[in-house]
Amino acid sequence: MKVIWALIGLLALALALIGVILPLLPTVPFLLVAAFCFARSSPRLHDWLLGHKTLGPMIIAWNTSGSISLSAKRYATLSILVVFSISIFIGLNLGLLAVQALVLSCVLGFIWTRPHY
């Protein structure tokens, strides 16, 4: 079972790292999944992830206070605006734009109602 947890954790970590580059893929939720899986499979991987100078603070902040960094909030907002602008530019159907606007607004609402550090 530990091997399965480790594989899921590695997959989640890979998706999180891709999410650092691609604005459509969230980073922190995948990091949280990776930390959860590593805690059940490998204390060494779990400690490495939490101790990582870039990735660790995001996980620790979420686990301790449910907070998101102000820069991450700004980056997420900018990414969402860019993605929605592209959708308008390519001429998506008005119904799809409405659904996208609703979902993205909910995402932004969630992000901006979390405390920041």
Gross morphology: elongated
What count of structural domains? 2
Distance between the termini: 36 Å
Gyration radius, to the nearest Å? 16 Å
Helix and strand topology:
Layout: H1 2-21, H2 28-41, H3 43-51, H4 56-65, H5 70-89, H6 94-113
Helix pairs in contact: 1-2, 2-3, 3-4, 5-6
List keywords for this structure.
117 residues, mainly alpha, 6 helices
Can you describe what's shown?
This protein has helices at 2-21, 28-41, 43-51, 56-65, 70-89, 94-113. With 117 residues, the chain is mostly helical. It has 2 domains: 2-65; 70-113.
Short description:
The protein is an all-alpha fold and 117 residues long. It has 6 helices and no strands. It is 79% helix and 0% strand.
